Amino acid sequence: MRLYDLIDGEIATVQSFTGDMELQSRLVEMGILPGIRIRRIKTAPMNGPIELKVRDYHVSLRQVDARNILINQ
Fold first, then answer.
1. Which of 7, 43, 66, 68 has a beta carbon 3.0–4.6 Å from 19's, enabling a disulfide?
2. Are 7 and 59 in contact (CB under 8 A)?
3. Whose CA is closest to 33, among 11, 54, 50?
């Protein structure tokens, strides 16, 4: 399952990433690492970014990038 597939309000654990190293580096800098619990808060209108809660802060992530994060529920 991918982070993109979560419904707003659901919580999951990051399993791994797909995509290039540039994306993976950016995700790690944002605190999105394998083993971290992550909550999908909401999606901006008109296919905008997804708001996530990672640890104790909120980040926004493009939907195309959310498709590259594999999760376990």
1. 68
2. no
3. 54
